[in-house]
Amino acid sequence: MSTAAGREAEEQAARFLSRRGWRVLDRNVRGGRGELDIVARKGEMLAFIEVKRRDRREDGLLAVHADKQARLRSAAQAWLARHPDCAALPCRFDLILVRPGRFRARIEHLTDAFR
Hints:
alpha+beta, Trna Endonuclease, Chain: A, domain 1
């Protein structure tokens, strides 16, 4: 993410994941035709996580359209090619929505958001 608010949302998402037992392996990785916000592992599950900061949940969901999904798949393939030790792990694409709140952000983790 390029904006300060976007970078803060990614930081909040990384802390959110860490508190839930995920190990963040990589962040803001460019490769293939896209960029991965967060790559994290929990047990044997590897997740490529897109972070969206939006005021409305629906706007965050709409932002991960078919072209964006294709770019994320391409970036994930490039990441796996550079990390063969993770290539055999089951993988999924998650979405973390960060919605600013009056006193603190509301964070929603959507697992297996697309294939």
